[in-house]
Design goal:
The chain has 294 residues and is mainly α. The protein has ten helices and no strands.
Length: 294
């Protein structure tokens, strides 16, 4: 349910002035702040605007009340309309046109003339466009009925005079068309924008091509690393098998040595020597088969 427009509490007043202060610090239009707070508080934009200026007058009269709401008058002043003098207009327009001839845009030229002041830049920009619009309207041809009739009469006189000449050469009149400074500037700026757009497109295509080639090289390197990783795993598994086989052979060798020592202690027994010979032969066969498998 919408609140009554007169029912403003202290928190809403503080939020409104804080929001407008933030917008002005960021060089945003104050009308945007009114629209923002109107949507936040479910009020009308004009109601928010009227209440703000009424409250601002109250704060200007009562500084203690302004201090209570932390109102900084640096960001809360009602701007008065300042008009250009003819000398200021002529000088500023001359500077702007000089910068436009160097390839500046209208906004950038006005920003340079304003010495970085955004408010002055907007004033210069609006003044330039207003004067440019007026000059275009003044240079428009007037296609009235009287102008057409007078042109036809002049053309008829020229044709009759030329017919009387002996050389029978008819000189057809032509109307000169001249472009205004604003039209020349707009054509030049359009050409500059087209060149910049073409350069950006070419740059984007070059970057895309480089990225595609880099991605292809990266995929190739990843595949090579994967193949190397598989080879390492294969050789590691094979190394483990050889290590186990070596351990088994060491154990068999230690058994053989212990048995040989027992036979030497027991004496010259032909049966035991025969068993020892068979065992050595079998052990030799095992080592040969293990070498062949590796």
């Amino acid at each position: 349910m919408r609140k009554p427009e007169s029912a403003w509490n202290e928190q809403e007043i503080f939020e409104l002035f804080k929001l407008i202060e933030n917008y002005k610090k960021n060089n945003k239009a104050i009308i945007k702040a009114f629209e923002k707070y109107a949507s936040m508080s479910n009020r009308k934009k004009n109601s928010v605007r009227n209440y703000y200026y009424a409250k601002l007058k109250e704060f200007e009269r009562d500084t203690k009340l302004a201090q209570k709401f932390n109102v900084d008058f640096k960001w809360h002043t009602k701007s008065e309309q300042i008009f250009f003098t003819p000398e200021e207009t002529e000088l500023s327009m001359k500077k702007i046109n000089n910068l436009l001839e160097k390839g500046y845009s209208v906004r950038k030229a006005c920003f340079e003339v304003a010495c970085g002041d955004v408010k002055k830049m907007l004033r210069f920009q609006n003044k330039y466009r207003n004067l440019n619009h007026k000059s275009k309207n003044q240079n428009k041809p007037k296609n009235s009925f009287s102008d057409i009739s007078s042109n036809e009469l002049n053309l008829d006189k020229i044709l009759r005079n030329n017919i009387k000449n002996s050389d029978n050469i008819l000189v057809m009149p032509h109307q000169k068309t001249m472009l205004t400074d604003g039209e020349i500037t707009s054509l030049f700026m359009g050409l500059v924008k087209l060149v910049k757009k073409t350069a950006r497109t070419q740059c984007d295509m070059d970057v895309l091509s480089q990225m595609q080639s880099a991605n292809a090289e990266l995929r190739k390197s990843i595949k090579t690393l994967a193949d190397k990783d598989r080879e390492i795993k294969f050789f590691r598994k094979k190394f483990e098998l050889l290590t186990n086989e070596k351990t088994k052979l060491k154990e068999e060798l230690s058994k053989l040595r212990s048995q040989n020592a027992e036979l030497i202690k027991a004496g010259d027994s032909p049966i035991k020597f025969k068993k020892l010979k068979n065992y050595i032969d079998n052990l030799g066969k095992k080592t040969n088969t293990s070498k062949e498998t590796t």
